[in-house]
Every structure is written in C-alpha cells, then in structure tokens.
Write a structure and sequence with these properties.
Layout lengths: L2 H4 L15 E7 L11 H18 L3 E8 L2 H14 L3 E6 L9 H7 L3 E7 L11 H5 L7 H11 L3 E7 L4 H21 L2 E6 L12 H8 L2 E5 L1 H9 L3 H14 L1 E2 L8 E2 L3 H20 L4 E5 L7 H7 L2 H9 L4 E2 L4 H12 L3 E11 L4 E6 L13 E5 L9 E5 L5 E10 L5 E11 L9 E6 L4 H9 L6 E6 L3 H11 L2 E4 L2
Helix pairs in contact: 3-4, 7-14, 7-16, 9-11, 9-12, 10-11, 11-13
C-alpha cells in the first residue's frame, strides 16, 4: 500500500465508487519466433495471463485480446477493444514485436495506451542464457520502437518499465492509470446539478455548460431553487426527525465562539436544516445526481433565501455520501471535487484564506458545506447570525481536513476555452484555525506560502479548489490525459 492509499477514504465512509474501468489488455510477440523456439509462445501467454490477473485485482474489468503477433491479429484486437468501448489499453511487450503489430490496435481502439515493458525476472544468468531464454525476457526490446511509431502517428502514450512480480514502483504506476480510467469513465457518465445562479461578479467561475458536456462527457442538469423548495415542503415529520437524529450523530454542537456573528443553536434552526436536507436527498434521487453546485441569493427572508441559507448541513451530508457539493454555483470546482471523490480522496470545497509567513503554511477553507468524511475530528455545527457576503443565517459547518498528505485540485478555463486541471500536493498539519463556522485547515506545501501562491496564480486558476486527502497528483494527471484536459502541477 502506498502512502497515498493509506490516507484515502476507507470503505463505509460514504464515498460513492464510480464504474470500474474497462481495460483492454494485449500481449505482443513476433509470429516468426514460434516455430523457431519451442515453448516460447506458451511461456509468453502465461506471462500475459499473470499481467491480466494483476490488472483485475487493481479494479479493472479486463477485456483481453490475448497475444497479438501479426498486423492481422492487431486489427482484430483493435476492433474488439473498440466494440467493448475500453477506457484504457495496456500493451504488454512480453518479447520483441514489430511496431506494425501494435499501431493498428491503438488506431482502432481510440483509447489512451500505456506500454508495459514488464520482464518476468529482474536479472538473468548472462553467461548461461541462450537466445530463446533471452527472447522470453526481452520486454524492453521493442518499447522504444513502438514509442517512436506512436509519436509519428500522433498517438499519445505512457510507458511503464519493470517486472511482472515484486515491483511496487511499476505496479503503483499501472494502478494509477487503472484508477484514473475508472474516474474518467465515471465522469463521462455523471450528472451534475446546477441549482440557481453563480455568485454575482465572480467572473472566474462563470462556466460554459457546453464546454463541460463536450470536454468531459458529464451532463449538467439545470435546476431551479423551486425544485428544492417543492421537495422540502413535502418532507414528512418522520423524515425530518430521522434526519435530525442523523445530524446529531454526525456533528458536535458548538457553543457560540468569540465571533460576534455566532450564536446558540436554536431548535428551529436544526429543524429547518434537517427539513432542507430531506429535500436535498429527494432532489438528488429524483434527478439522479452525482454532484451538485448551487447558489441563490433570495431577498428579505423569502423562501428562496431561507432555502439557500439552509442547505449547508444537508449538502455536507451529501458530500460525505459521495455526492460532492459546491457553493456559489462553481461548476468547475464541482468537477474537481467529483474527480477527487471518485479517486477515494474526498474533495472538499476550499479557497485560500491566508498565508502564514511566520510558520510557513497556507490556511485554506470555505464557508458552506465540506467533505465531512475527511475531517480530522468530529465536525462541528455552529450557528451564524449572518453568512458573510451572503443572504440569510443558520447552521454552518466547521472542521479541519485530516492531518497528513493532501492534494488540492483546481479546475479552470483557458482563454481558448479549454478546461484545465491545476494540482498541488502538500500536507495538512495541526494547529489553531478559525472558529467561525467555516472549514479551515493549515496546509504546508513544498514551496514557501508566497512562492506557492505566485506559481499557482501563474496557471490562470479560479479562486476555489477541491481539497482531498492523500497524494494523488499522478492519478489526476492521468484523468486529465484520458479526458484530453489541460493539466499543470505546482511543485
């Protein structure tokens, strides 16, 4: 298990797993070898079966094309992968093969390809190895040839070299591709609710729905605040009571802090938050949503304002169940949250709060819902007499993200209209944070706070990010590659 894996969400914490990746796997060889070297083909087919078994254990649904040893067989393998709509192709270069036996597979499959140069052994008895034995171990021989052919053909690829067994480095890279392929498949089939409108004036967050459909395959379901209002009004007393019990079990109830806008939690506030949470559950079920982003201002205490002010608790519960929610109708950050959640890393709605130059960390958090499944301690409910910069008042969520490795993922849009993921890896560290009814955590990055922010801003971000646990930049980079999104990493 890698360090990143040890900090991912564990089973039962609520993350909603996406579809398993459909992974096309084929081995390659040269048909001229088989009559020349007895038993060579059978040995290579055995190595291939071991690789396929490992890929299945990593969570991929394997579509096997077996051993491809001619251009004709390559066409058949590519057609099969295309028919099965594989998300990823793994080409296991078991022995030497000409690049003409590989290129047709990639051309027909129309899926990203990872070239695997995996040897059956880490070393050889060189003085006593004959030609047949060498050919059974020369996994690296043709990989550069294939890479050169793919480059000239304009086919993107990655390469993983190592051994079939006992090679954590190689297999962790393959695992990252398999996980990323599952996330990409999930994203292409996701339904994201957009309720209300973007917070006025936040130009960085305005999103082109068509670009999201076109570049990720996700569907944006445009919702009205009335869709939530009708379902909240239909909540039964029994449903509300059950939701109150769920809230009481999940959250600690805070006394008012020193912040003058905080106050005691009133029974009416708890009842309203629970009632809206029931409405949110129904909204997600009725529209089959995988994620939700929202904002609605409302006026003078009307129903729309009360609904918009009452969603924080329910949306935090949804996020913990694998339906990530983002305030201020930030659709792009909601996509980043969805990616992190499906990687098992959480994905809490976050922004830059402050740079601490004395202790060398960045304070990051946000008002509104958070991914309470990745909280360091029991999340807290705090009653706020007003939401700063927003209409209404009510219960808000306060917690720190779990200590240890973390990854932040921003999703922005370039001047050319391309969606772009921006990623940074750091660490969540102990220490005092604000007690103002907001999520907020101390995050330390390899760069100084000032230099990190400068390099982050150089990538043209929005002011929000998704914050997840574990170091998962490799997987996010692979997701970007699989979806054809732009990618930048701040190191």
């Amino acid at each position: 298990m890698t360090v990143a894996d040890s900090h991912r969400l564990t089973a039962g914490t609520g993350t909603r797993p996406g579809p398993r990746a459909r992974v096309g796997v084929f081995g390659i060889g040269l048909d001229a070898y088989w009559p020349q070297f007895e038993g060579l083909k059978e040995r290579i087919e055995g190595y291939q079966r071991r690789v396929e078994q490992r890929v299945g254990e990593l969570g991929g649904d394997v579509v096997s094309a077996g051993l491809v040893d001619s251009a004709h067989a390559a066409r058949q393998a590519g057609d099969r992968f295309a028919a099965e709509q594989v998300d990823l192709v793994l080409c296991h270069a078991v022995t030497y093969a000409t690049s003409s036996t590989v290129l047709p597979v990639a051309q027909a499959a129309k899926a990203p390809v990872v070239l695997l140069g995996l040897q059956p052994t880490p070393t050889l008895d060189y003085a006593n190895t004959d030609t047949g034995e060498w050919l059974a171990n020369c996994a690296a021989c043709c990989v550069p040839e294939i890479a050169g052919a793919f480059t000239r053909a304009g086919i993107p690829y990655d390469t993983v070299a190592g051994t079939i067994d006992d090679d954590e480095r190689a297999w962790s890279r393959i695992a990252a591709w398999v996980r990323a392929a599952g996330v990409a498949r999930s994203l292409r089939r996701s339904r994201i609710g957009f309720m209300g409108h973007v917070y006025p004036g936040m130009l960085d967050m305005y999103s082109d729905f068509t670009a999201v459909h076109a570049q990720t395959g996700a569907h944006v379901e445009v919702l009205e605040i009335d869709d939530l209002g009708a379902r909240t009004a239909d909540a039964t007393d029994e449903e509300v009571a059950a939701k109150v019990a769920e809230i009481e079990a999940m959250f600690a109830f805070a006394d008012p802090s020193a912040d003058p806008i905080a106050g005691p939690i009133e029974p009416e506030q708890l009842d309203w938050s629970a009632r809206v949470a029931v409405g949110l559950d129904r909204l997600v079920a009725d529209f089959d949503l995988d994620a939700l982003t929202y904002y609605y201002r409302g006026v003078e205490g009307n129903e729309a304002e009360r609904l918009g002010a009452g969603v924080i608790v329910g949306n935090s519960l949804l996020t913990a169940r694998g339906v990530p929610t983002a305030g201020e109708a930030d659709l792009k950050t909601n996509l980043a949250q969805l990616i992190l959640d499906r990687l098992g890393a959480g994905g809490s709605y976050t922004e830059y709060y402050a740079l601490d130059f004395a202790e060398g960390f960045v304070l990051m958090g946000h008002d509104g819902p958070g991914h309470i499944a990745i909280a360091q301690e029991q999340p807290t409910l705090r009653s706020l007499k007003l939401y700063h910069g927003k209409s209404g008042a009510g219960l808000s969520v306060e917690f720190k993200v779990r200590y240890g490795p973390v990854t932040i993922v921003g999703c922005t849009q370039t001047a050319g209209g391309r969606l772009k993921l921006i990623v940074g890896e750091g660490e969540s560290i102990p220490g005092d944070t604000f007690r103002i009814g907001n999520t907020n955590s101390r995050l330390r990055f390899p760069l100084s706070p000032g230099e990190f922010l400068e390099r982050w801003c150089a990538e043209g971000p929005t002011h929000h990010v998704a914050l997840g646990v574990g170091h998962v930049a490799d997987e996010v980079r692979n997701v970007a590659s699989l979806l054809g999104l732009d990618y930048a990493e701040v190191r």
